[in-house]
Design goal:
Helices cover about 15% and strands about 30% of the residues. It contains eight helices and 23 strands. The longest helix is centred in the last third of the chain and has 17 residues. One of its GO terms (cellular component) is extracellular region.
C-alpha cells in the first residue's frame, strides 16, 4: 500500500511510550480464599435465581434476578456466581493421597456483595440482585457466603439455571489472514470435532454464499504453566474454531455467519455478521487503524472489577463501537483482559469486544499479563500471567504468524510491517518487570 495512510490513536501511543506502567494490583477473583471455604448452611437462609432458562431466542447474554435471605446478615456477606453449577470438592481431583482438595475447587466467575442493591440487607436480612450472564457453555448456580472473601462460609446455594443451547457458536473475532485477500474468523463453542463440523457460511453481500470448514483447538489444565490457571482459576475454555475465508475481492462487503453441522445433520447458526475486505496492495487508500493496550474487561452489572478502575474498558469499547464505521483495523497490543490465570474472564472479554471484533480485524499481541511466567521463555521471569504463559492469548485469537506462540507478524504489506514495528517498540517500553 505504497501511498496508504493510516489514522491511529496517537495520544494512546505517546502516553504508552512516555509512561512506564507498573503493577495493576491483584486480580479480583484472587481475593476469594477458595481453600479456606467451609460449609455453614443455615435452615432459614436461601438464594433463588430466575429465569431458569436463558437465551431462548438465541441471545448470548441475559439479565437474571437473585432473591436471597439470611437469618444472621452481615455487611461482609457476598454472592458468588459459579459455572459449572457443581462447584463442590467432589468434582476436584486430589493432588495426592494425603492432600485433599478444597471445599471449592474453582473460583467464582464473578461476585458481588449482598448489600449492593439492598442497603438495608444487614438490618432485614433480605436482598435482591440483578446480574448479567453470558453463554459460557455450562450451567450456573449462585452461592450466598458469610465471612467475607478471606474467610468464606457457605450459607445457601441456589437452583441451577442454563442457556437454552450452552454449546452455541459465539463471539466471532476476525483477524487479517496471511495473505492480503484473506480474512480469518475465530469463535468459541461447546461442540468438539466428534460432536459437530464447524463451518462458516459466507459470501459477498447480496451475492452467492459458500461454506468453508474450520480447524478446532482446545486446551486442558495441563496446557497451563501454573496456578491459578491450573487450579482454582481453571475453567474449560470450550472449543476454539478458526476458518480462513480466501480470495476476497478488494474493498467488497462480505456477509458471514458461524455454525456447526451436528451428527444428525442439524445446522446450528449464529446471527449474521459482515466485514469489508482489505484494499488491493498498492492501491491508494485510507486505512484507519486504532492501536491501544492495557484495556481489560468490565462487568456492566457492577460485579467485581480489576482494581476498581476497569470501567474505563467499557468506555473504550463503546467508543470503538460508536466509531466503527471509521475503523479498518484494531491492534490490541497486550494486557488484553487481565485474566491472570482465571480463564472465565476470556469468555467475558470476547463477548465484550464482539461488536468490534466481528466487524473489523482485531489483532492482538501478548503482554506481560498474558505471557510472563518463569522458565517458559518469556522476556520477564515474573508470574504476571497467572500461569497462562501465553497459551490463552494465542488460542483465543488468531494471529497470521508462522509460530503462534511467538506473535511476530510476517509476510505482510509495508503498512502492516510499519505498524508492527511501532507496536513492538511500544511493547518494549511499557511492559513492566
Amino acid at each position: 500500500m505504497g501511498e496508504s495512510k493510516f489514522v491511529s490513536l496517537t495520544f494512546l501511543l505517546v502516553c504508552s511510550v512516555l509512561q512506564r506502567v507498573w503493577s495493576h494490583g491483584d486480580q479480583p477473583l484472587s481475593k476469594v480464599s477458595v481453600h479456606k471455604a467451609t460449609v455453614s448452611l443455615l435452615d432459614l437462609a436461601y438464594i433463588k435465581a430466575s429465569p431458569a432458562i436463558l437465551g431462548q431466542e438465541g441471545q448470548t447474554a441475559e439479565w437474571i434476578t437473585l432473591e436471597y435471605s439470611s437469618p444472621i446478615p452481615s455487611i461482609d456477606d457476598w454472592i458468588g456466581v459459579f459455572s459449572p453449577a457443581n462447584f463442590s470438592a467432589s468434582t476436584c481431583p486430589k493432588e495426592n493421597g494425603r492432600v485433599y482438595p478444597p471445599l471449592l475447587c474453582s473460583a467464582p466467575i464473578k461476585y458481588q456483595y449482598a448489600n449492593y442493591s439492598s442497603p438495608l440487607y444487614k438490618e432485614h436480612g433480605k436482598g435482591f440482585l440483578k446480574l448479567r450472564l453470558i453463554n459460557q457453555r455450562s450451567d450456573f448456580s449462585f452461592a450466598l457466603f458469610s465471612g467475607g472473601l478471606s474467610n468464606p462460609k457457605l450459607v445457601a446455594v441456589s437452583n441451577k439455571i442454563t442457556f437454552a443451547n450452552p454449546n452455541a457458536p459465539v463471539y466471532p473475532r476476525l483477524a487479517q489472514g496471511k495473505s492480503w485477500n484473506e480474512m480469518s474468523v475465530t469463535w468459541t463453542s461447546g461442540y468438539g470435532i466428534n460432536d459437530a463440523e464447524p463451518l462458516v457460511q459466507w459470501g459477498p453481500k447480496g451475492g452467492d454464499h459458500m461454506h468453508s470448514p474450520a480447524e478446532t483447538l482446545t486446551l486442558t489444565s495441563e496446557s497451563m504453566c501454573g496456578a491459578p490457571a491450573r487450579t482454582v482459576g481453571w475453567r474449560d475454555p470450550g472449543y476454539i474454531h478458526t476458518s480462513h475465508l480466501k480470495e476476497l475481492w478488494p474493498n467488497r462487503i462480505y456477509e458471514y455467519k458461524i455454525g456447526h453441522k451436528l451428527n444428525n445433520a442439524t445446522l446450528i447458526w449464529s446471527r449474521n455478521y459482515q466485514f469489508k475486505a482489505p484494499p488491493f496492495p498498492g492501491q491508494k487508500s485510507l486505512q484507519r487503524v486504532v492501536i491501544f493496550g492495557d484495556m481489560g474487561k468490565h462487568e456492566v452489572d457492577g460485579s467485581n472489577e480489576y482494581n476498581n478502575f476497569q470501567h474505563g474498558s467499557i468506555n473504550t469499547t463503546m467508543q470503538l463501537i460508536q466509531d466503527l464505521k471509521n475503523i479498518d483495523l484494531v491492534f490490541h497490543i497486550g494486557d488484553i483482559c487481565y485474566a491472570n490465570g482465571y480463564l472465565s474472564q476470556w469468555d467475558q472479554f470476547t463477548e465484550q469486544v464482539e461488536p468490534i471484533a466481528s466487524a473489523v480485524p482485531y489483532m492482538i499481541a501478548s503482554g506481560n499479563h498474558e505471557r510472563d511466567w518463569p522458565g517458559t521463555g518469556s522476556f520477564y521471569e515474573n508470574k504476571d500471567s497467572g500461569g497462562e504463559c501465553g497459551v490463552l492469548a494465542q488460542t483465543m485469537f488468531y494471529t497470521p504468524a508462522a509460530n503462534r506462540a511467538k506473535v511476530w507478524y510476517d509476510n505482510m504489506t509495508p503498512l502492516f510491517e510499519m505498524i508492527i514495528t511501532i507496536i513492538n517498540f511500544v511493547n518494549c517500553m511499557i511492559f513492566p518487570v
